[in-house]
């Protein structure tokens, strides 16, 4: 059985490796209200922004090999083919920077593997991205408490964004959940079909690669040193669940990996052969009917921004 699991891990992880080369408060319902004669607390005043704050900040986390730690978050240029540029550029062109800030996560975005031992490990890259995105949210909320946020990410960047959304939705994040207008995750490596909402193509039967490979995480270390397959997000998205959109092309191993290890070898050849779909979200018009996923996200974000911008 261990040999079978190891073969599966190799097949799935080889697909993972090749993917990017070509181009990521608490309310207690049981507490009684004030009894007769007890004073009620006045409602908290609505948050107000000081001059110079934007109404909405859009944060985008690129995928593996689509960012760099020293990239400019306001004018990213690390990879001109980065999928998230198809979201951030249209929004940046459409809205005044006085009203909407468009910020792209600068992080190492690497994935050490047996063919690239010099790269930063997936764990370190992912953790770096998580902390930088978290700090951007914290800093903006501290300066501009009435600013709302839209979070987006692709692949490794979707894992980072989804992890942050999970923290925020469960009351552990850098901003309150009511400050987040929406979350869009493209090819999330921790995707679960019952968490968030799957937009578009419904032919997904698998799960995120970090979940599918969790049982063999220890066995894959020689192949991808420092890549921990952590399994599902323990608490899901909490309060944000209804505001999280997932996008996944069928047979994309990052978000549609075989959930049943017993059937994995039967499907592995087909999935590996089809894994080019992970690099085609910028042009694939079949995930969301009639448009690409980035085009859909731009329209979705536009609607959220227009409801908020004064």
Automatic annotation (TrEMBL):
Keywords: Disulfide bond, Hydrolase, Serine esterase. It comes from the Bacteria. Belongs to the cutinase family. This is Putative secreted protein. InterPro entries: AB_hydrolase_fold, Cutinase/axe. GO terms for molecular function: carboxylic ester hydrolase activity. Residues 32-52 are annotated as: Disordered. It holds the Pfam family Cutinase. Residues 36-45 have a biased composition (Pro residues).
């Amino acid at each position: 059985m261990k040999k079978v699991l190891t073969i599966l891990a190799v097949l799935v992880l080889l697909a993972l490796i090749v993917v990017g080369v070509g181009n990521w408060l608490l309310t207690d319902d049981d507490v009684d209200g004030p009894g007769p004669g007890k004073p009620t607390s006045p409602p908290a005043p609505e948050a107000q922004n000081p001059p110079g704050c934007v109404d909405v900040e859009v944060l985008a986390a690129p995928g593996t090999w689509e960012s760099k730690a020293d990239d400019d978050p306001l004018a990213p240029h690390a990879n001109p083919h980065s999928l998230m540029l198809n979201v951030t550029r249209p929004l940046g062109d459409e809205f005044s920077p006085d009203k909407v800030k468009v910020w792209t996560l600068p992080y190492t975005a690497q994935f050490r593997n047996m063919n690239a031992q010099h790269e930063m490990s997936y764990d370190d890259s992912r953790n770096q991205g998580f902390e930088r995105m978290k700090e951007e949210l914290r800093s903006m909320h501290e300066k501009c408490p009435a600013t709302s946020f839209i979070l987006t990410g692709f692949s490794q960047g979707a894992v980072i964004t989804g992890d942050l959304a999970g923290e925020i939705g469960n009351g552990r994040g850098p901003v309150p959940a009511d400050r987040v207008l929406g979350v869009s995750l493209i090819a999330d490596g921790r995707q679960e079909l019952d968490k968030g909402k799957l937009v578009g193509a419904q032919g997904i039967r698998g799960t995120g690669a970090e979940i599918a490979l969790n049982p063999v995480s220890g066995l894959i270390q020689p192949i991808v040193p420092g890549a921990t397959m952590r399994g599902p997000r323990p608490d899901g998205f909490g309060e944000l669940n209804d505001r999280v959109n997932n996008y996944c092309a069928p047979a994309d191993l990052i978000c549609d990996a075989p959930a049943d290890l017993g059937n994995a070898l039967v499907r592995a050849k087909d999935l590996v052969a089809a894994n080019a779909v992970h690099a085609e979200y910028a042009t694939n018009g079949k995930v969301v009917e009639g448009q690409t996923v980035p085009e859909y996200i731009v329209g979705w974000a536009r609607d959220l921004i227009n409801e908020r911008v004064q």
